[in-house]
Amino acid sequence: MNDAPHIIKVGIAGMETVQAPDIIRTSGLGSCVGVVVFDKSRKMGGMCHVMLPDSSMAKSGSPNKGKYADSAIDELIKMLLQAGLKKYTLKAKLAGGAQMFQFTSADDKMRIGPRNIKAVKDRLSLHGIPVLGEDVGGNSGRTIEFDPDTAMLTIRSVNKGVADI
Amino acid sequence: MSFIDKFTISHLDALKEAGNIGAGHAATSLSHLLDRKINMHVPSVKLASFDEMMDIAGDSDRKVVAVFSRIHGEAPGNMFFVLPPEQASRYIKIMTGNNDFQLDKPPLDEIGLSALHELGNILSGSYISSLADFTNLDLYITVPALTIDMFGAVMSHGLLEISQVSDYGIVIETTVAEASATGQITGHFFLLPDPESYHRIFLALGVESDE
Fold first, then answer.
1. Separation of alpha carbons A16 and A2, rounded Å
2. Which of A15, A32, A69, A90 is catalytic?
3. What is the pLDDT of residue A61?
4. How far, in Å, CA of B161 to CA of B75, rounded?
5. Average pLDDT of B15-39?
6. What domains are defined for chain A?
């Protein structure tokens, strides 16, 4: 068996959990928001990559829970509780929600980034989970990597380099 | 039946033909603009999960130059022209005669960026106008937007409409390459019609659609 740390990849509209020494990553966040919910003392957490703010936007049945901010966060917390974490120890960090293209028209779709950010924060606060750090908005894409050992979220962007929160 | 199950081979073929016409005209425009011979590759229509789409032109965090056009009219949708930064720099050098231009070295020259924007305008415009002629649908684009960023971040912007009805998307992809160069792919066109547009496109092309 291989004991070397793995990088767990979370796809768009996906979610996964992670336990140190493994780390977890999601790539190419544009207007999407990447959220990590974790327990630092247990060195464990989970990440989701949400595309849309609200599962009521689904126009077809049985929506993929990871796609929407509200259902993704509910599901992620459920997974972490099932893994033995306690809700009151959970903290969150988030990144993304950019506006990738600048338009003059005030099309509602162009505001999907800010709407995603707000929906994520609202849902986290509904669960009483504090947000310890965020790198949101702007107009750059982001790739994020979370290390549950240090609870550090590393954010990489094409134009602004690397930052830790 | 889910959105994606409604598609048959003849539907996909019709979409392929639409991509062929659009990109064919855009390749001709590119060829005129650069005074170079440009080859177009046979288009492909991919039914793919969002995850697969994020990696369709390489890794999702690969840096690309992307020109995004929102298509309005009878069959709305999203269109991207995506090319590697090195290739974009090369085109800018040819267009402006400024041999020092590097997209990797900010601050970027205004004239160079403007030329790139114009290249995007011309290619997107010729793609869409030929598609409109072919389908006899009223289609038009507003001024395209330009960005230099991660492919996945760019592509996800084009998935917003389809993501509300499906976990899969359809992308009509055509690649173009300079004939003289080492056969390297120079650019990708991605056409992503909105979910409700497929029915109209199929109707316009005389392919049966059960919606």
1. 20
2. A32
3. 62
4. 13
5. 85
6. 7-164 (3.30.1330.200)
Report in angstroms the alpha-carbon separations of A24 from A40, B41, B112, B122. 14, 37, 39, 41
A99 closest CA partner among A118, A85, A78, A114:
A114
Q: Chain B contact for A30, CB < 8 A?
A: yes
**Per-residue confidence (pLDDT) for residue A127, from 0 to 100:** 96
- What distance, in Å, lies between the first and last C-alpha atoms of chain B? 11
Across the range B79-103, mean pLDDT stands at: 83
A:B CB pairs within 8 Å: 108
CA distances from B72 to A92, A130, B138, B204 (A): 39, 42, 8, 16
Output B157 or A61, whichever has higher pLDDT.
B157
Put simply, the answer to whether B167 touches A67 (Cβ < 8 Å) is: yes
Tally of CB atoms within 10 A around B42? 9
Active site residue A48: no
Q: Flag whether pLDDT at B35 surpasses 60.
A: yes
Per residue in B172-183, pLDDT (tens digit) is 888 888 776 565
pLDDT class for B138, splitting at 50, 70, 90?
A: very high
At residue B40, the pLDDT reads 80
Average pLDDT over residues B175-201: 79
- Which residue ranges form the domains of chain B, and what is each CATH number? 3-204 (3.40.1550.10)
DSSP 8-state code for residue A68:
B
Q: Residue B58 carries which DSSP code?
A: S
DSSP string, chain B: --GGGG--HHHHHHHHHHHHHHHHHHHHHHHHHHTS-EEEPPPEEEEEEHHHHHTTTS-TT-EEEEEEEEEEESS-EEEEEEE-HHHHHHHHHHHH--TT--TTSSSPPHHHHHHHHHHHHHHHHHHHHHHHHHHT--EEE---EEEEEEHHHHHHHTTTTGGGT-SEEEEEEEEEEETTTTS-EEEEEEEEE-TTHHHHHHHHTT-----
* pLDDT exceeds cutoff 90 at B22: no
For residue A109, give how far its alpha carbon lies from the nearest alpha carbon of chain B (Å): 8
Out of B148, B151, B164, the one facing A59 most closely (by C-beta) is: B164
Does B4 reach chain A within 8 Å, measured CB to CB?
Answer: no
